[in-house]
Amino acid sequence: ILLTMMPHGFKSSKQDFTFGPWKVTASTNHIMKSKDIERLADEMNMPSLPEMLFGDNVLRIIHTDGYGIEFNAIDALKIVNKMEHAVKVACAQEWQESRMDSEHSKEVLKPYDWTYTTDYRGTLIGEDMQIQVTKTTERIDLEKLKAREQIMFFDEVLLFEDELHDHGVSMLSVKIRVMPTSFFLLLRFFLRVDRVLIRINDTRLERIICCESLAHVKNVPAALYTDPNEIAQYLTLKLTDCEKLELPVRQPQTVKEVLQ
Questions:
Q1: InterPro entries from the entry (predicted)?
Q2: How close are the terminal C-alpha atoms of the chain, in Å?
Q3: How far apart (Å, rounded) are the C-alpha atoms in residues 36 and 54?
Q4: Can you give the pLDDT at residue 84?
């Protein structure tokens, strides 16, 4: 593990873990500099990007044949709705006006999803060999996940976070744990707009979207609103979209490989 201290108390690290033909890489770095965030916002045609944007953070799973999947903030932000607000509340206008005098301001404030809600499910890797994504009726074996197995590797990578000008939080993170018989990965987008709603978009093998107006969340301690793991059980399931990642079949390249 390579570990160095960065300014503002953030740690820069890179962890590699190999199991069978797979290699997991978890890299964390410091928050992007303001000038780089501003340049990126221009490229994406967005007036602003999350306050805490970790553009160099990545969680990557690669097969020895060269294909795989990775999770990064830039690709996640590319599919944020750039044309309209996802949540139209009084504080949205207040939040936008507060940023007009910031270093990231533009002369004309463009409409966009100020909550940075993203439907990101990861970025496929592999030019010659590509993973195929297909619809499926299969589900995660929850009983297998409950089994007590040795955790050989674990890491969590924060991709971006924004406090929505003290009106809540928008956060995207990914974590992985590797056991002797399998690995489990969870990409989670968590959004809380104070006094308005809470939304969780989870990507595992399944795509699960939960969202609930706070007016409908009854008898729940307010302290749980800040904990995605705890509040998730009180949210209404809006969508389950199940897909299967079909791994490419490598063709033998030599007579020797054919004979083997």
A1: Phosphatase_reg/MetRdx, TIP41-like
A2: 37
A3: 11
A4: 57
- ∠ CA 228-234-236, rounded to 5°: 105
Q: Given this model, what pLDDT does residue 233 score?
A: 85
- Domain locations in the chain as residue ranges: 13-246
Using a pLDDT cut of 90, give the percent of the chain over it: 43
Is beta strand 197-203 parallel, antiparallel or unpaired with respect to 123-125? unpaired
Is this structure's pTM higher than 0.85? no
The DSSP string of the chain is -EEEE-GGGPEEEEEEEEETTEEEEEEE-PPPPHHHHHHHHHHHT-S---SEE-TT-EEEEEETTS-EEEEEHHHHHHTS-SSS-SS--HHHHHHHHHTTTSTT--SSPPP--TT-------EEE-SSS--EEEE------HHHHHS-----EEEEEEEEEE-GGGTEEEEEEEEEEE-SS-EEEEEEEEEEETTTEEEEEEESSEEEEEEEEGGG--S--GGGGG-HHHHGGGSEEEEEEEEEEEPPPPPP-SHHHHH-
Low-confidence residues in the chain, pLDDT < 70: 1-11, 82-112, 205-209, 212, 250-260
**The tokens of 5 are what?**
């201290």
The answer to whether 189 and 172 have CB atoms below 8 angstroms apart is yes
